[in-house]
């Protein structure tokens, strides 16, 4: 028996979503470690929590069921297999050495399910570790982390993405985020909500992040290749979705390998069945390779033979794959300076709640005005503190159930 969750587009009415409310892990950020932990500043945590609560409230007010990752994780940390794999990943760190690794394992094993979930997310500092010992422990400073925190868990889109009725637990590229997929997999594997759900991908494979995966429409998946997702990851995903009948076309879209465009969804997102909002600086030259499978599919998914055509303009390739004459690109009309500012503030990273209804950061006033002029209702939310990790409403949400498009 499967869980009954399914996502086949970016804009079908959103019914269930997975979020993570930022917590004590954000309080671990300092000017000394924020770069290593992939934040551009040290956020005001209480304000970030208020902003996230308002985001979740905007979803629930529109009929969306909100699931919280930390709560689901606490509920599965009572399962021995989930505890074992999560603890093993937390201590799999060459900094620790054998003695400190054993002490940390003992500390984590002694925690209750709820406390363990909290520790895995917020980290364990040197002076919090019960029974700490060994040379590595002695050489650490009090504020150093034996188990580093996971402040980017806020961005639930990246560690998993649903394609049809299967979930891809992804392979995160940055060392500071790699352990997020272990926790996400524990939830999808052991929580009764997801009983029977097939897993399409896993963290041992080539790097692939959910922010680079867009479900343009039923059977059509776009995958950005850049800073976080490799061509090998896109190829592996293509083979698997073809073998399992989840898609007929994968569009592989190269993007600049830089911080401001780390994922495909930082430069474009869908806001209607035939419309995208896109960073103007890339709109004219974004290209795509069209990947399809040979008619005869082998039994082994990873040996599916692929046909690759292109490149051609992304919007043209997408329209053809979707069986449409053309896709609408919403012209934000931004001058270059404003465009760069609103791109940096995730102006193009919207979360569609339904066709022509999208959540966006309120600070991107020019982009939002252009969306509204094009007939898109904008649910504007605050994000001054949430955005310090470079992620918008889409980054902060993993849709688990959407209505199919008519």
General description of the model:
Helix content is 30%, strand content 22%. The radius of gyration is 21 Å and the shape is globular. It has 406 residues and is of the alpha/beta class. The protein contains 13 helices and 19 strands. The strands form six sheets. It has a five-stranded mixed sheet. Strand 5 (160-163) and strand 6 form a beta hairpin. It has a domain at 59-64 and 152-402: L-arginine/glycine Amidinotransferase, Chain A (5-stranded Propeller), CATH 3.75.10.10. Helix 2 (69-76) packs across helix 5 and helix 2 (69-76) crosses helix 8 (180-190).
Secondary-structure blueprint:
Layout: E1 14-19, H1 45-60, E2 65-68, H2 69-76, H3 80-90, H4 97-109, H5 113-122, E3 124-125, H6 135-139, E4 145-147, H7 156-159, E5 160-163, E6 166-169, H8 180-190, E7 198-201, E8 213-217, E9 220-225, H9 231-243, E10 249-254, E11 268-272, E12 275-278, H10 280-283, E13 287-293, E14 306-313, H11 314-321, E15 328-330, H12 336-344, E16 351-354, E17 357-361, H13 365-373, E18 377-381, E19 398-402
Poorly predicted runs of 5 or more residues: none
Percent range for β-strand residues = 15-25%
Question: What is the CATH architecture annotation of the domain at 59-64 and 152-402?
Answer: 5-stranded Propeller
User: What is the assigned CATH homologous superfamily of the domain at 59-64 and 152-402?
Assistant: L-arginine/glycine Amidinotransferase, Chain A
């Amino acid at each position: 028996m499967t869980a009954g969750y399914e996502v086949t587009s970016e804009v079908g009415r959103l019914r269930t979503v997975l979020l993570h409310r930022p917590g004590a892990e954000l309080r671990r950020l300092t000017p000394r470690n924020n770069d290593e932990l992939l934040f551009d500043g040290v956020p005001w945590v209480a304000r970030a929590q208020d902003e996230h609560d308002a985001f979740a409230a905007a979803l629930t007010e529109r009929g969306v069921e909100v699931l919280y990752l930390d709560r689901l994780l606490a509920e599965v940390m009572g399962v021995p297999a989930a505890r074992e794999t999560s603890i093993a990943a937390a201590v799999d760190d060459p900094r620790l050495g054998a003695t400190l690794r054993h002490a940390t394992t003992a500390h984590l094993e002694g925690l209750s399910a709820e406390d363990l979930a909290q520790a895995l997310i917020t980290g364990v500092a040197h002076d919090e570790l019960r029974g700490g010992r060994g040379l590595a422990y002695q050489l650490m400073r009090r504020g150093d982390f034996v188990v580093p925190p996971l402040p980017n868990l806020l961005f639930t889109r990246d560690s998993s993405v649903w394609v049809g009725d299967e979930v891809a637990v992804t392979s995160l590229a940055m060392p500071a985020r790699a352990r997020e997929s272990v926790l996400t997999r524990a939830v999808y594997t052991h929580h009764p909500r997801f009983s029977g759900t097939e897993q399409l991908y896993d963290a041992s494979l080539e790097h692939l992040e959910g922010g680079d995966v867009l479900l343009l429409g039923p059977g059509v998946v776009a995958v950005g290749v850049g800073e976080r997702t490799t061509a090998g990851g896109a190829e592996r995903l293509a083979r698997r979705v073809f073998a399992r009948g989840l898609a007929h076309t994968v569009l592989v879209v190269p993007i600049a390998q830089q911080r401001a465009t780390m994922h495909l969804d930082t430069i474009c997102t869908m806001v209607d069945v035939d419309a995208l909002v896109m960073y103007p600086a890339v709109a004219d030259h974004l290209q795509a390779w069209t990947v399809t499978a040979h008619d005869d599919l082998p039994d082994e998914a990873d040996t599916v033979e692929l046909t690759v055509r292109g490149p051609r303009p992304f919007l043209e390739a997408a329209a053809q794959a979707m069986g449409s004459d053309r896709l609408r690109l919403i012209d934000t009309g931004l001058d270059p300076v404003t465009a760069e500012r609103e791109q940096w503030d995730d102006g193009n990273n919207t979360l569609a709640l339904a066709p022509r209804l999208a959540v966006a950061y309120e600070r991107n006033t020019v982009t939002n005005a252009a969306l509204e002029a094009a007939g898109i209702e904008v649910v504007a939310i605050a994000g001054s503190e949430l955005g310090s990790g470079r992620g918008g409403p889409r980054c902060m949400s993993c849709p688990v159930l959407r209505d199919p498009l008519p």
